[in-house]
Amino acid sequence: MTTPDLDSLRLLVLVDELGSIGQAAASLGIAQPSASKRLSTVERRLGLVLVDRTRRGSALTPDGRVIAGWAHRVLSELDGLLDGAEALRTQHEAHLRVAASMTLAEYLVPGWIGELKRGDPGLYLGLEVTNSDQAAELAREGKVDLGFVESPGSLPGLSSRRVATDHLVLVVPANHPWARKRRPVTAAELAITPLVVREPGSGTRETVDTALRKAGVGPAKPLLELGSASAVGNAVIAGAGPAVISELAIVRDVAEGRLVPVPVDGVDFGRELRAVWPAGRRLAGPAAELLSIAVRNAKSR
């Protein structure tokens, strides 16, 4: 299946919002015949009828409305990606300096930054993407105004506030024996199984090790250490071995059958994601606003 282009997705969303191809075309500054042709191309690529064309006009079919809703989410995520990329580009001339662990930087922080930037378009913001230990250390040393970490332990020298909750999930490829296992994997089974893991200093790695120790077992020697959740997920898909990673990182791969989540009995892989800043310092200005946005979004999830 060929992926529809972004302009066609925008057109489909506008047809849904405005109620007609003509108004959507006018909003994009293109001719109505061109708009109709684009929508026909999307229908062929997806193998679905998206627009009901009659003499009285055109309207989205039920399938078209569903696809338009998904397209709106894709475009919103793209806006978050672009806002996050802009933050990285302006790192050296930032008015607000932020550090974030990999999982937060990949899946949550870009959306928060996008909302902050929409309220203050002139703000220069620098984002440093690292692991939780390094993000905490940068905040502790005052090298960033605000950090976002996944570490489950104490954070000496830092004030913190929960901004989101997350759950780690054991995943395997579809052809792995555990994918067909009728009973949950036990803590003891997991403890003797070499896993694909994040690097030392990662909040995900620390959460897994801490959860296993609380369950009365210790982690096995890692099978492979990698520097991001996406790298870990790709290694599992390629057949390297099982992994325990954030549910934020596996949504698409699970939906498309590349990864299979496996329940684990007796181990709590829940965790809090926290904002951190130097102890004794009161957040103000853009840093306080970014924290407020993060907390507000956590309540709506």
Keywords:
301 residues, alpha/beta, Arc Repressor Mutant, subunit A, D-Maltodextrin-Binding Protein, domain 2, 7-stranded mixed beta sheet, two-stranded antiparallel sheet, transcription regulation, WH_DNA-bd_sf, DNA-binding
Protein architecture, described:
The protein has 301 residues and is of the alpha/beta class. The chain folds into three domains: 6-73, Orthogonal Bundle (Arc Repressor Mutant, subunit A); 76-151 and 276-300, Periplasmic binding protein-like II (D-Maltodextrin-Binding Protein, domain 2), CATH 3.40.190.10; 165-271, D-Maltodextrin-Binding Protein, domain 2. 46% of the residues lie in helices and 22% in strands. The strands form four sheets. Strands 3, 4, 5, 6, 10, 11 and 13 form a seven-stranded mixed beta sheet that branches. A two-stranded antiparallel ribbon has the order 1-2. The model has no long low-confidence stretch (mean pLDDT 89). InterPro entries: LysR_HTH_N, LysR_subst-bd, WH-like_DNA-bd_sf, WH_DNA-bd_sf. Belongs to the LysR transcriptional regulatory family. One of its GO terms (molecular function) is transcription cis-regulatory region binding. Pfam families: HTH_1, LysR_substrate.
